[in-house]
Specification:
By secondary structure, the protein is α+β, with helices and mostly antiparallel strands. 16% of the residues lie in helices and 15% in strands. It binds iron/sulfur cluster (SF4) (2 copies).
């Protein structure tokens, strides 16, 4: 079920989806494909290229879909992939801008 419109605000309040920046150490990879197989958003796929060990490392096919769940980095047996938070808020900065939070800057309806 997809929640849209005013109901979205009621359900999710100020929550905003996180986005990840994916980093791959290609030459550490052993081409097992775990990260590709278990990514819930199908962000990765094994590339055609070979690394120094002769394996096919993953590459990012649709980074915008990455949820920053970090499952890929948790599951990788070679510590060859990790994800950082894209555009993390500065310390003290609200997660949502006041103008996006309603006329009075309220966080909840
Ligand atoms: S952080 Fe999650 S969504 Fe992003 S590439 Fe890794 S497994 Fe996929
Ligand atoms: S889980 Fe790690 S070792 Fe396996 S394909 Fe992905 S990056 Fe390579």
């Amino acid at each position: 079920m997809r929640i849209e419109g005013p109901m979205k605000k009621i359900y999710f309040g100020d929550l905003v989806a996180k986005k990840g920046d994916i980093h791959i150490a290609k030459d550490r990879c052993k081409g097992c494909g775990f990260c590709v197989e278990y990514c819930p958003k199908e962000v990765l796929e094994l590339s055609e290229e070979f690394n120094v060990k002769g394996y096919h490392p993953p590459h990012v096919k649709n980074e915008d879909d990455c949820l920053y769940c970090q499952l890929c980095e948790t599951i990788c047996p070679e510590f060859a992939i990790f994800v950082t938070l894209k555009n993390p808020p500065e310390e003290g900065e609200p997660i949502i801008k006041k103008e996006d939070a309603g006329e009075k800057g309220e966080s909840r309806p």
